[in-house]
Amino acid sequence: MPACPWEGFFSAAQLKRWSEAIPLRFACRRFSAPAGVDQQITLAYTAARVSLPGVRLALLDCDSNRLFLSLPFFPRIEYARQYVAVIIDTGIENAQLHAGVSGEAMVLEMSAMGLGSCWVQGTFRRSAVDIPLSSREKVAAVIPYGQPSSKEGGRSRRRKPLKALCLDKPETWPNWAFQAAESVRIAPSALNSQPWRFSRSGGTLRLSGRGFGNINFGIAAMHIECALNTQPHIWRFSSDNKGLLITYKEET
Ligand SMILES: Cc1cc2nc3c(=O)[nH]c(=O)nc-3n(C[C@H](O)[C@H](O)[C@H](O)COP(=O)(O)O)c2cc1C
Questions:
Q1: Does residue 27 sit in the same domain as residue 120?
Q2: Is residue 2, in this structure, part of any structural domain at all?
Q3: Is 68's pLDDT higher than 80?
Q4: Which residue has the CA at smallest separation from atom 10 of ligand 1?
């Protein structure tokens, strides 16, 4: 069974800080200024600290017009001067999932610092990412960041109700399971697809869904870690490898 290396990887203080940042985060696509020098230093530390196996987070300067694509029906990223390249080692098991966890830790740290950011997996030119890669590495996504040009985006979150993500009745769940699923419900996902599905059996919550194992599911795992933090729980993959199981450990 593959490991869940995010379990116990982050400190309680980090998870608390990021948990408080979850409601503040939104997909920021327009920036007014770059992050300051002190903020860059903090982010460089964070990038090194949060990288799980198979993930490299590189902080790079950005030529927004060159890096981001202008596509019909997709909002363009504008005036970004910095970005994180989320690089994965394709030879490492579950590197995409790990990239979701590590990248979302960066995103939430940026929100906690008052910076705007946006996951971008589709609307950028991979050839414009200016960093040497080894033969096994590829750029999974980029995350432009900087001072947000407005705080408006936070108010326009479009999400499915929790019931639509649950295969059984969330109103019958214990509070920890409800909190975990609710923290995922407001997470970002590619094309706002919200692919996550939850079911509960006894003291175990199962996270699965279309495209299980991709970045969206790593983001979900990060949000669950934030929601549960020091509440005793363990992670494992389901036996069919199509889901993650979170088991709550009642304190004795
Ligand atoms: C893995 C991932 C990939 C994404 N790719 C893009 C992208 O290519 N272009 C873009 O403009 N937004 C992209 N987004 C941003 C989503 O569209 C956005 O998070 C979603 O619509 C929800 O909005 P919110 O983040 O403001 O809550 C991506 C988000 C995620 C999590």
A1: yes
A2: no
A3: yes
A4: 120
